[in-house]
Structures are given as C-alpha cells and as structure tokens.
Design goal:
Layout lengths: L10 E3 L2 E3 L3 E3 L15 H9 L5 E8 L16 H16 L4 E6 L17 E2 L8 E4 L2 E4 L4 E2 L5 H17 L4 E5 L5 H6 L14 H19 L4 E5 L13 H13 L5 E5 L12 H6 L5 E4 L4 H10 L4 E4 L1 H5 L3 H6 L29
Parallel strand pairs: 3-4, 3-14, 4-5, 5-10, 6-9, 10-11, 11-12, 12-13, 13-14
Antiparallel strand pairs: 1-2, 7-8
The structure holds P-hydroxybenzoic acid (PHB).
Length: 359
Amino acid sequence: MSTTLDLFSPVNLGAIALKNRMVMAPLTRNRAGEGGVPQPLNVTYYEQRATAGLIITEATPISAMAHGYPALPGIYTDAQIAGWKKITDAVHAKGGKIVIQLWHVGRISHPSLLPNGALPVAPSAIKPAGQAFTYQGMLDYVEPRALELSELPSLVADYVHASQCALKAGFDGVEIHAANGYLIDQFLRNGSNKRTDSYGGSIENRTRFLLEVTKAVVDAIGADKVGMRLSPVNPFNDMQDSNPQALFNHVASAVSAFKLAYLHVIEGGMGGTAVDFNFDELRKHFKGAYIANLAFDKVRGNAVIASGHADAIAFGVPFIANPDLVERFRIDAPLNTPDSKSFYGGNEKGYTDYPFLGA
Ligand code: PHB
C-alpha cells in the first residue's frame, strides 16, 4: 500500500474535515434572486457538486455597498441567510463541506449597482482601467471615493456581521477574499493604494486593513473556521505592486500567526500572465494548510500534493462543467466541455444541466 498523498486523500483544514483534497474554487455565476437571495436553482447547482472535498461559494457581498456585478447573492440579510441555509443543508446531506467567500469589491463597481447611486469606495481615488458589468451592460469604471479613516471600523464590522450570518446559514466556515483586485487587495498592492496615513505606504501599513479584518473575523467565529484567498501577481482588475514577493511573504507570515484553517493562493495571473514570483517561498511563510489554484489538472494536482507544496487543490472551470469531477478524476473519465458563454448570468443552461457520468 502506498502512503503517498494525492487528491483523494482526506485532510483537515482547521475545523473542516474534507473527504478528499479537491476543492471547488469560488466562481461568480450571477444567478441569485431578488435582494441577493439564493434561489432553488442555486441549491441544485451546489448540491450537484457536493462530492468535492470542500465547496468555496461564489464571492458573496458582505453589505449593500460591497456589490459590483449583477445578480450576486449576499450574506447580510435574514432572507439571504434563509436562502443559503437551504444550500448548506443540501450540501451537508450529501456529505459535503461548504464555506462562503466574503467579498467587498471596493472600486470594482459602479454607482448603478450601489445604494442611492453611491460612488464605489477604495483606499485611494484611483479609477481602474476597464468597464463594470452592470444591469445596463458594460460601463466605464468611475473614480472611486477614497475611504476616510473613520469609515474603516464599520467596514471591519461588516465582515464580522457577514461571518456571523454565515454561521447562522450553516456554513462550515468563511473565506476572506483578499485577492483579485477587490477591496482588501486594493489596500495591499501599491498600484491601488496611495494613502499617506497608517493604511498606506509601507508593506506593514498596506497589510493593516487585512489584519484588522482577519482578527475581527477570527475573534467572532474562531480561526479554525476562517480561510483566506490571495492572488499575489494577478493583474486582473488593473492591479500591480512594485514588490509582490516582499509584500506577500509578509502577508503570509502575518496571517500565519492567526492559525487560520487555510491559505488559498492563485499561483499566477488569470489568463496565463507570465510572472516572476516564488510561490514555494511564499508557502514557507505560512505554517498552516495551503490550497493552490490556477489551471491545475489531475496530474499536476497530485504532484503538488505529493511534493508537500499544497494540501489541497482548487479547481474552477472543471467544476462548472463537471458536477462529478471527483469521480471523473478517480476513474480518468473524459470531462465535459465548458461553455464560457453561460458562465455569467442566465438560467439552468450551463449551470445545472451539465451531465453526470452515465447520464
Ligand atoms: C468575476 O466576477 O469576474 C470575478 C469575481 C471574483 C473574483 C474574480 C473574478 O475573485
């Protein structure tokens, strides 16, 4: 009998016991109902994928001001909690585990998506290049309003409130979204953070907001139920940093002290951008469990688990197109072809109608 670990070996991520190491990555699908309330169709989608060792939900706004795309679910009202509870119950009934990704988009939004046409908020008033996906179609991003120091505690409180809502909704934990050019990442990287107060400038200062959010969420629900996602070199959403290795080595060390359930890292740029970054070095700065993500397949996933670099692998697009991805990997069955036109928005087509093996 071999003792080599692979994608099919069980593992504990903090308090969360996974039956295998195949994690469903967070995937924006824009199919929530009115008021950001999850619908029966969303229950079917997640339930179909419950054989994953862990499901990380789509990125989910923590407040009305945290929205940046149409038809997102939220995790801050009683109706949203009730909607999610049907999802967590369905996943648990199938023997799965599920955490919710806590999201504030910061400047990646548009007044038409925000209460009373508010300006998006960000660490600094810097308009990102590109366009927002709105109910009126693609619209240029606007210059966001720079957050006042006095506003930051209420943002931290929104993360805490959302975490408490998540536990009420039956989630096994939460993932703090600190990646991909959204609010927390906008504080971390110096392309989007030009603040001259204690939240800008040095690496320590730029990491401050992340650590305040993390401490507050950990104090509220327990570190063993809190994961975090980072994307040190992803240029997505007009992001850059002058020294990502130094910044994210520091971030990994600092969050390691909280003894989180896991750290989840996008190991490159979405869209295949070539980058100069040492992810093994980053990984050494974090003492807990580590989930690697970015275009892995079975062979490479097994290899990085066997090597000890990662404890689990997050798969995105393969889980969109293959609800039974775990079984397909187990028996080396062919995979369904993903339809990218139905990734964002729509109905059951391209969402809950991908066939299972033998169907
Ligand atoms: C997206 O909707 O394109 C999206 C959302 C969250 C991410 C990345 C991309 O972290």
